[in-house]
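Hey, can you fold this one?
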Amino acid sequence: MQHTNSETPLRPETSARGRMAIFFALSLVLLLASLDQTIVATALPTIVRDIGGLTHLTWIVTAYLLSTTVVVPLYGKLGDLFGRRLVLQVAVIIFLVGSALCGIAQNLPEMIAFRFLQGLGGGGLIVTSVAVVGDVVPPRERGKYQGFFGGIFGLSTVLGPLLGGFIVDQFSWRWIFLINLPFGLLALFVINRTFRPHPRKANISIDYAGAVLLGMALTALVILTSLGQTLVKEAPVSMFAFALLGVVSLASFIYIETQVPDPLMPLSLFKNRTFVIAVSIGFIVGLALFGSITLLPLYFQIVKGLDPTSAGWHLTPMMVGVFLTSITSGQIISRIGRYKIFPIIGTGLMTSALFLLSRITVETTPFTASVYMLILGFGLGMVMQILVMAVQNTVDFEQLGVATSGTTLFRSIGGVVGVAMFGAIFAYTLQYHVMATAPELAATLTNPDAVIALSGDLKATYDKLFVASLHPVFHTASLLAFLAFMLSFAIEEVPLRSSITSKPATDPLLIPRDATSLAELERIVERITARENRWRVYQSAAARLDVDLQPDELWLLARLGERGGKAEKDVLRGLLGPKDGRPPRPFSRIEAAGMARAAGDAIELTEKGQSVYDRLLRQREDDLRHMLRDWDRNEHPEVRAMLKEMANSFASSPPVPPASAISSIAH
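Sure. Predicted structure:
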C-alpha cells in the first residue's frame, strides 16, 4: 500500500537543551524495551511457580521476541508516514499497557498474550528511537548518539538477567513489568513536550501483507517447534492445521514479495551467496544466544540452588565476552582490512563452548559454567556484527539498507525459534526421563512448588534428570554451531575498498530495522567524518582557502554562515566552551581581517566573510564527494542533497584545540 505525504520537508533546529531532553526520553524507552528481552530470564522459575505452566515457560520469552521481530520492519515506514512523534507515542502506550497487564497476569495464557502485546510496543520503541535521532540531531553529531544507543543495547543484555534476579529477590516478579510504568510515563511526557515533528515529502510503500504473512508463518513455526510433540499425540489435526498454515503463509509471503514495489525482504538478495551464508549463520547465532540465556538460569537456580540475583551474575561473563571481542575484532578489521577469519574463529569458539556446556553435571561449579559462557561470548562477539559487514561489503548500493535489516532480522528469527525449540527439547527430555526412571517425580513436571519441596534422594535424582535433559539441548546447539563453522569458510571475502559505496558500516544496534539505501549511506559518511580530527580539518581548510585564521576562528565564520550570516556573540562564546578553555578574543581576528563586523551584541558576516564561507562550503562538499568517487552521483540527486546538508552542518560543533594550540593562540 502506497501513501503520500505532501507536506514540505522541514527540519527545524532543536535547541541543545531540548535535544538532551529528547535524548533522555529516548534512552529511557530504549532501555526499557531492550531490557524486557532478557530481564525475565532469571525470573522464569519464580513466575511459573506463581502462575503455573512449567512445561511452556519459554513462551513468556518467545511471545515478546516474536511480536518484536514481526513489527520492527514496519515501524520505520510508519514513522515516515505519520511522523516519528506520533508513532513513538503510540508504541510507548502499547508497551505500557502490555507491561501493566503482564504485572497483573494470573495464569500462563494471560501472561503469554500480554507479553505479545508488550512486544508490539517494544518493537516500535527500539526502531523509532533510533530513527528520531535523524530528526533532531545534525548529521555531523549523529554518530555519537547512535553509538550511545548501541551501548544501551549491550548494557541491557548484561543488566537484564541481573536486574531481573534482584527484583525477584527483593520485591516481586510482578515489579519486573510494573516498574516500566513510571519511567514510560515520564518518557511520554518529555517526548510530548519537547519533540517537534518534522513532516517530510515521501511516497511510502508499506508492505502490510508481507508483514502479516511473515508473522503468521513465524507463529506457526514457533507453535510447531514448541508444541509439536504434544500435538502429534493429543491433537494431530491441529498439528496438520498449523503446518498447513505455515506452508501457505510462507508461500504467500514469497509471492507477495515478488509483487509489491517495496518488499519487506527482496527475494533478489537470496541470489547473493554471501547474504545467504550470512543469514544462515546469523540464524544459528540467534538460536545459541537466546537459547542459552533462557535455560541456563534454570540450571543455576534449580540444580545449584542459587538465588535469582546470583544466577544473573553468572550470565554476565557471556555478555562481557561479546563486548570484548566485538570491539577488538572491529578495531583489527579497520587496521588489516580483512574480516573472514573472525566468523571462522567465532563459530569455532561457539561450537567449543556449547559442547562444553553439554558436558555439565550436577557437580559442575557455577564458576566453571560461567567460564564456558565467557567462551561462548567471545565467539558470539566475533560473529554478529562481522556478518553485517560482510553483507554490506558485497551487495549493491541500492540494496544496502534492506540487506542490513535482513541480516539482523534472520538473527532475531533465530532467537525466537531457538527459545521455542530448545524449550521444547528440554521439556520433552525431562518428561521422558522422569516418567521412565522416577515416576514418583511426575508432579514436578507441572507443579514448580513440588520441585521446591524436594529433598534428600528425591532432590538428587531430580537434579540428575534435570541436567541430563539439558544435554540434548546443548548437543543440538553445538551441532548447529558446527554447521555455522563450516558455512563460515564459504564466506567470500571481498576487499574493503576505501570508497563509500563499498565501505562497510556495522550497525551498532543488534536489531533489525527498516532503512533505506540513502540512510545507510548517510550513516557511513557520518561515521567516517566523526573520526576526523576537526582541529586539523579546519587548519587544512584555512590553508587551502589561503586565509590567515586559526581553526576555531574559521569555525566561527562557518557558524555565522550556517546561521544566515549573523549570531549573538554570547551564544557563540557558549558554544566555544568554558572561558578558560577558549581563545581570549575569539572575534577580533575575523573582524580585523574584514570578514565580520560587530552589530551591537551580535556579530555578522561582511561580503568578504560570506565569500570565504561559500568557498569553505564548496570545499567541504568536494571533500565529501571525493569519498563517493566510485559512484555516479548524477543518477542519485537525493545523495547530492544529502552531501550538501552534511556540508552545511560542518559547523555544528567547534573544533577542540590541543593544549599547544591554545597556548599559541593566547599569546
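Confidence is low (pLDDT under 50) at residues 4-14, 497-516, 659-667. Let me know if you want another pass with a different chain boundary.
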